[in-house]
Amino acid sequence: LFPYTTLFRSQIRAESRIVPSRVVQAMDSLSLDLTCRAVLSPQNVLDLKRFMIKNGANSISLEGNADIKKERMDVRGLISGVNIAPFLRGTGVSVEDLGPIRITAKGPFMQPNVTVNTSVASIEAQGACLKDMTLDARVQFEQGLSGLKNSVVELKTREVRLPQAPGLKGPLKVNVQAQSPDFTVWRVKDLHIAMPGMSFRLEDTDWDAALGRFSTDFQLHVARIAALLPSQAPPIDGQLEILGHAEGNCKSTVKAKLDMAVSRLSGLPPEASGLIGPKLTLAARAVMMDRIVTLEGVHLKGEHAQLNADGWLNLRSEEHTSELQSH
Question: Strand, coil or helix: what is 97?
Answer without folding.
Answer: strand
